[in-house]
Amino acid sequence: MLKLFQHNTPKIHELEKASSAIDVRELNLWFGDKHVLHDISMRIPKNKVTALIGQSGCGKSTLLGCFNRLNDLYNGCKYKGEIVIGGKNINHAKVNVARLRTRVGMVFQQPNPFPMSIYDNVCYGLKLQGVNIRRHLDDAVESALKEAALWEEVKDRLFESAHLLSGGQQQRLIIARALALKPDILLLDEPTSALDPLTTLFIEELMAELKQRCTIVIVTHNMQQAARVSDYTAFFHQGRLIEYADSDTLFTMPEKKQTEDYITGRYG
Ligand SMILES: Nc1ncnc2c1ncn2[C@@H]1O[C@H](COP(=O)(O)OP(=O)(O)OP(=O)(O)O)[C@@H](O)[C@H]1O
Question: I need a labelling partner for 244 at 20 to 30 A (CA). Which of 7, 109, 217, 221 fits?
Fold first, then answer.
């Protein structure tokens, strides 16, 4: 198995409850009549990278979107069950969803910078929050771009359009935009599938750095990537959680035949 990073990861059952960043309890989700997620219960550990894997359509992105209530945007979506983040059930009707989304940032497959400068992209969320002191914005932009390993490449062109950056730079800019809000959790939905192999490695190394300061949940179709970057991996099939373990165990000694068939490419 290809490994970039040393994981040194405790087995899933050894994790203390206190170390969970996200605690999913009996989550079910429907789009209209279609039952998409079935009785999902799992604890996602703090300051680790957790990968969600499984065949196309098994519900990975939908589950990821549950962690910042993204599915609320779709008519006909309903869900039952709890998702506890920071001690609160985020599925509760009274949760402030805008605030939740600043604590739980999200990065999609296609980099989607706003049509504005690099600087304005990074501080967009902060300005929405009412931060308008120039020195504070400058500091936040510099620090987020440094965390996203982009500062050295853009420090002399902060006021150029973000659309002039390469695909890999744009994806790091989107990560910087999320980091500027100091999220506790970063959700990455196939963040490298539109990028070349070298840029992909660069972003993977960045994840290893970022988990020091926030919890990362990544959806990926790339088994090597999941094995390289994640501490824990959850395998889904048709909306059900089939197996969840530390990545070393899941990729070398899966318990379930279905998991083995998937990771060895026998289906999916
Ligand atoms: N907004 C929506 N409205 C209706 N059905 C949806 C919606 N979003 C997703 N679905 C359905 O829910 C199921 C799970 O989709 P989801 O995108 O979560 O799967 P996935 O595992 O992330 O797939 P992929 O790997 O192809 O991205 C699919 O059957 C999909 O068609």
Answer: 109
